[in-house]
Every structure is written in C-alpha cells, then in structure tokens.
C-alpha cells in the first residue's frame, strides 16, 4: 500500500490542502490524538485543529493515549479513516506511544494505506529518531522514555515552525546544528509536506 502523510507545523494554516490530498472529508471519521499537548501550557492549536477538521465536514473522534484503555485505543485506530496527531511535547508523545503500543498500531495503519496527519510533534515523530528536537521540546517531560527511536515512517526529519515566532532562533539553530548530519525538512507554519509513497511535495499557503 502507498503511505500517505500530511505533515504540518500548524494544521489550521494549511487545512485547505487536505481535501485534495485525502479526498472528500464529509463524514469521514478522524481519530484525533491530542496527547502531546497534555504537558504543555500553550495548547490552543488543539482546538483550532479540531475545528478546522469539523469545518471540512469530518467527524472527530478524540483518543488520548494517556488515559485510554487498550481496547478503546485499538478500536479507534482501526475504525477511523484518518489518524491525526497534534502538536505538543514530542518526547512525551513518544513515551506514551511506546508505553501503550500505539506506535506499532499507527505504523501498521500507515503502512496499510491509512492517511496520517501530523502537526508539529505529530510530524516530528514520523522521523527515525527525535533527539534532534531536544532544544525545542523538553526531554524532562518524558521521564520514562528510555530511547529516542521514533516511528521511522519517513527518512527525513521535520523541523516545524521554521523561522516562525517564537521559534526563529531555536529552529535556525537546529538547522545549523544538524543539516550536515540529518536530512532535515524545515517547514514554516503555512507549509505542508505531502508524502505519497516515495514522492514528497511541499505546498505553501
């Protein structure tokens, strides 16, 4: 099956690109995973992402990995048409994905053709490893995370909010530090990376 990923910094800014990528969204069921935002004070993007999906006609089904039981988690990932993972702390998100086994379920779903939308942390986590983002996200918020191996769905490393306030300095430092070591993909808040199989396209709003 062809992998289909819609990777963003800030979904609300690029939501208009989704119907062309994912097809008609009216009454499509989207499992919406806000877990990364649980440990962040700033989380307005969760509601704006949810609202943008509802405005496109989608049915949003929230799944918080930190509180859901295994049966609920498996059912929601399997039964929905699209997987959406919000921004927040990437290390906490990875910790909870590994703890619950959602990492394997999500990876299998993507590999079987289910569309994945990753916003900020949700985009970062598709890389092979997330250590490169440690200057942007606090590792301390994931005390039980033993390694930084991530989903490894793509072979590049998304740098969200590139040169956007308040991340101008942090993002340019990440690019400076890692550009010779990793295949970075910096994106601003009004850009989206579309992955279809091995084809990668960047659109700007």
Tell me briefly what this model is.
This protein is of the alpha/beta class.
Written account of the structure:
This is Putative peptidase E. Belongs to the peptidase S51 family. InterPro entries: Class_I_gatase-like, Peptidase_S51. Its EC number is 3.4.13.21. The chain is α/β, with parallel strands linked by helices and 205 residues long. It has a single domain (2-202), classed as Rossmann fold. The protein is built from 8 helices and 9 strands. A 7-stranded mixed sheet has the order 3-2-4-5-1-8-9, sandwiched between helices. It has a two-stranded parallel ribbon with strand order 6-7. Helix 8 (168-178) links the parallel strand 6 (157-159) and strand 7. Helix 4 (70-79) runs parallel beside helix 6 (102-111). The radius of gyration is 15 Å and the shape is globular. The chain starts with a strand and ends with a strand. The mean pLDDT is 96.
Q: How do the helices and strands line up, and which of them pair or pack?
A:
Elements: E1 4-8, H1 11-14, H2 18-22, E2 29-33, H3 44-55, E3 59-62, H4 70-79, E4 82-85, H5 90-100, H6 102-111, E5 115-119, H7 121-124, E6 157-159, H8 168-178, E7 184-186, E8 191-196, E9 199-204
Parallel strand pairs: 1-5, 2-3, 2-4, 4-5, 6-7
Antiparallel strand pairs: 1-8, 8-9
Helix pairs in contact: 4-6
């Amino acid at each position: 099956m062809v992998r289909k990923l819609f990777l963003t910094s800030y979904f609300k800014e690029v939501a208009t690109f989704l119907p062309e990528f994912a097809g008609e969204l009216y009454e499509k069921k989207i499992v919406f995973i806000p877990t990364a935002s649980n440990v962040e004070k700033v989380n307005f993007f969760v509601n704006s992402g949810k609202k943008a999906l509802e405005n496109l006609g989608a049915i949003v089904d929230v799944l918080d990995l930190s509180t859901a039981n295994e049966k609920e988690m498996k059912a929601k990932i399997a039964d929905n048409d699209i997987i959406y993972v919000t921004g927040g702390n990437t290390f906490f998100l990875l910790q909870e994905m590994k703890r619950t086994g959602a990492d394997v379920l999500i990876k299998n779903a993507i590999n079987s053709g289910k569309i994945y939308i990753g916003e900020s942390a949700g985009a970062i986590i598709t890389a092979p490893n997330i250590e490169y983002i440690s200057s942007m996200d606090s590792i301390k918020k994931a005390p039980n995370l033993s390694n930084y191996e991530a989903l490894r769905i793509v072979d590049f490393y998304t740098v969200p909010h590139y040169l956007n306030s308040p991340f101008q300095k942090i993002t340019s430092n990440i690019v400076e530090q890692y550009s010779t070591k990793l295949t970075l993909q910096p994106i601003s808040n009004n850009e989206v990376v579309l992955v279809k199989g091995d084809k990668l396209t960047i659109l700007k709003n």
